[in-house]
What we know:
Blueprint: E1 2-8, E2 11-18, H1 20-24, E3 33-37, E4 53-55, E5 60-62, E6 71-73, E7 78-80, E8 92-95, E9 100-103
Antiparallel strand pairs: 1-2, 1-3, 4-5, 6-7, 8-9
Amino acid sequence: MSHFAKLNNNIVTEVIVAEQDFINSGAVGDSFLWVQTSYNGNFRKNYAGVGYSYDKTRDAFIPPKPYASWTLVEDTCQWQAPVAYPDDGKYYNWNESSTKWVEVV
């Protein structure tokens, strides 16, 4: 069994588990593009999720951008804050207006 992402305009609208033969048969709908995704991240960078985009050039699933100030890390196709998450064992939330991590109290 494999995982497949259903794409509509390169946006993931559904993720299913199916046999490759089922996808190849067109039984799930010839009008959609199905792209295999890897649950453990062995290919296409990230496991597809609803709302993710598929970038054909990078051959990667990319999660929605969480904040305007964050940038895409090309190697992982994950978003990164402009300031590193503090490494002090405490919990933080991102504050976009100050572009800083704010401790959760």
